[in-house]
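Fold this sequence, please.
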Amino acid sequence: MEIQELQEEIRHKKREKDVVILAHYYQQPEIQDIADFVGDSLELSRAAASASQGTILFCGVRFMAETAKILSPDKTVLTPYPQAGCLLADMAEPRQVEEAKKANPTARVVAYVNVYAEIKALADIICTSANARKVMEEMDGEKILFVPDRNLGAYHARAVKGKEVLLWDGYCPIHERITPASIDRVKKKHPDALVIVHPECPPAVTEQADFVGSTSQLLRFVEESDAKSFIIGTEAGILHQMRRKAPDKELLLPDPMPVCDQMKMITLERVYTSLKEDIYPVTVEETIRVKAEKAIRRMLEL
């Protein structure tokens, strides 16, 4: 089927089956267009928790669909392609985190939402790129073990006073490849462009940026700014919503373009097949789910 025909079939099926479709900003434009809600990790966590439909079809990588299942255990959560993972999430293993907790018994574990359920279950609280600083500031105690993104953790830890933040040695390969040089190549051709980047970028990038924020914060900045040109230091998928919100703005990407191949494994055809055949339900072992939910709920309560 053609894209538009496939989109109409998906819209029909989701109404027929009482399904809500959630999609991350990094999904392909044709998938964002058929979603009931498009957002970043924090926004999608809230949408999953409040969804009234009996089934959630989650267009994102596996840890995101797991989060929806953790928050909505009585709902069916489908993922269009269960092999779509996250290389950042892969950098923290449960055994390693357990050993780090034993080595630092007074540290409170703050886990970035970009981890799998087993790691969430070991955390005291979850955070996202939008609220990591607030979560760190609100934690009791003087020591924090931040898992797994060293760049995100370092960026927010700089502003947190009176706490020692131990950083896990993990990173997002997509954001790690955004370097001062990759931005400068574009900046030379567009000297008036503001540089706005995600905090998963390396410190050499965030320290020189005009604005640093989560995907939703970057979107809002472009929409509200008086500037007309921007170099966007995050995954290319966010440009689809930016073009909708700010059609008069010039939107540029670093060179080379940051693209997450894991996110792009979710295709319109796979969404349709999962919806039509009710395949690839997400499961989380109940003892793990309960512990992980507690850590996520603590975040949502903030």
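Residues 111 and 147 are 5 Å apart (CA to CA). The radius of gyration is 19 Å.
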